[in-house]
């Protein structure tokens, strides 16, 4: 099959546009044509506007001709339908907000536009980014789930509709869809990407994430949308400390961890991640130590549930009281549970979150990276509840995490390994992923072959 320009990664496409090997117009036309052909098979978009994309294209072509174009050079980026967009609806996966247009951009969307991304539409999310599945199908097999909350963004990247897409993670809504779709997904350190103008479900957990098919594209996206400058002293002190973010001649100190949820992982997942661990352990630059963190983290899932339920009951009180019949049964149950949690209980769980987060920060004084499985299995069948995994642990602690698309099952379904780093060591985490890629321990992904029949 002849591969179109839509197969290019963002960084590859930018390089080719700069060298005039390809034109931005041909690139965008290739993506738009591909979206129109493949979308009926994937259902990744809640809103798609070809004419709006072409209008953005014309504006950016003018900037290119004037030598004033931004970092993203007209690359198309999918935006999860939990982020405000001034020129498109923001429905958040709910019929209650059908056709709602906020009239402004979320700050991260504004940043994408500022750096000249083209936004062709909004990707499907679960209802209010919680648990009720959307319409999106897994590009590898439509009988399997693509994940819940950020499913549209992950599937759009995996099926080559866009090379980059925004997601969010409150539990595992970036890492998990990335694992199920066979792509890279990154959840940065909590607070590094601004949350102004987007759906809020929790104050201490919601994190903006993103998807790509290459590590270079993860780096490009992170550098484009993260906060910068003197107004962010912790970022300036830690994230921009090159000695903290780079490994020179020292070896990588890796903690392979098992937690209280390791028991839920399928045997093929355990075998795969253990084999991956043993393989990279042979490298002279990598020192792997197996650590059991079960006692330290055994209560995280329960604490997370208390925080999650209470804040959802607060932020969706109006929907619950005035539009209950338009809420899914699962969200109704969560809000009902949250309403029974007292303010004192909520405050206690926040204190425990701070304590455990500090414990993990201290843990990382001895290790560079945690290695663990991303999910407990391949993608479950549509409608089947996922087994618990470690994703929400790292979200709970505010740590940066990346899904590495390294595994496939016998039936050709992908799942990933997960790497995690200390708060504000996001570049160190990206550098380790690049190190693994350069040593051929990981490839660029396990993408489906998309046929246009």
């Amino acid at each position: 099959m002849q591969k179109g320009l839509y197969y290019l990664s963002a960084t590859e496409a930018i390089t080719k546009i700069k060298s005039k090997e390809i034109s931005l117009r041909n690139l965008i036309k290739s993506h738009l044509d591909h979206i129109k052909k493949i979308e009926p098979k994937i259902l990744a978009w809640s809103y798609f506007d070809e004419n709006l994309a072409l209008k953005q294209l014309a504006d950016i072509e003018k900037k290119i001709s004037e030598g004033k174009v931004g970092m993203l050079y007209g690359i198309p980026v999918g935006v999860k339908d939990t982020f405000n967009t001034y020129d498109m609806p923001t429905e958040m996966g709910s019929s209650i907000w059908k056709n709602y247009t906020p009239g402004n951009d979320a700050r991260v969307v504004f940043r994408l536009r500022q750096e000249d991304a083209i936004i062709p539409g909004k990707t499907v999310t679960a209802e209010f980014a919680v648990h009720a599945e959307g319409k999106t199908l897994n590009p590898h097999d439509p009988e399997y789930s693509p994940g819940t909350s950020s499913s549209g963004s992950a599937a759009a990247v995996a099926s080559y509709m866009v090379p980059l897409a925004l997601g969010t993670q409150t539990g595992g809504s970036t890492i998990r869809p990335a694992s199920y779709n066979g792509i890279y997904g990154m959840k940065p350190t909590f607070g590094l990407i601004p949350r102004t103008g987007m759906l809020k479900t929790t104050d201490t957990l919601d994190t903006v994430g993103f998807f790509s098919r290459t590590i270079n594209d993860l780096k490009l996206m992170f550098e484009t949308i993260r906060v910068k400058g003197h107004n962010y002293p912790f970022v300036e002190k830690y994230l921009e400390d090159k000695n903290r973010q780079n490994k020179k001649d020292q070896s990588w100190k890796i903690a392979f961890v098992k937690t209280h949820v390791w028991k839920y992982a399928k045997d093929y997942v355990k075998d795969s991640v253990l084999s991956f661990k043993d393989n990279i352990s042979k490298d002279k630059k990598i020192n792997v130590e197996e650590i059991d963190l079960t006692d330290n983290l055994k209560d995280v899932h329960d604490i997370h549930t208390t925080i999650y339920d209470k804040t959802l009951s607060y932020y969706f009180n109006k929907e619950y009281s005035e539009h209950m019949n338009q809420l899914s049964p699962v969200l109704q149950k969560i809000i009902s549970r949250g309403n029974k949690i007292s303010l004192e209980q909520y405050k206690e769980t926040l204190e425990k979150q701070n304590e455990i987060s500090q414990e993990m920060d201290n843990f990382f004084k001895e290790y560079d990276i945690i290695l663990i499985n991303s999910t407990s299995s391949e993608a479950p069948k549509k409608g089947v509840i996922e087994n618990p995994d470690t994703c929400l642990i790292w979200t709970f602690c505010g740590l940066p995490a990346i899904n590495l698309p390294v595994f496939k099952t016998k039936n050709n379904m992908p799942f990933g390994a997960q790497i995690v780093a200390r708060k504000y060591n996001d570049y160190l985490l990206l550098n380790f992923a690049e190190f693994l890629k350069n040593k051929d321990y990981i490839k660029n992904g396990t993408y489906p072959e998309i046929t246009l029949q």
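The two ends are 12 Å apart (CA to CA). The mean pLDDT is 95.
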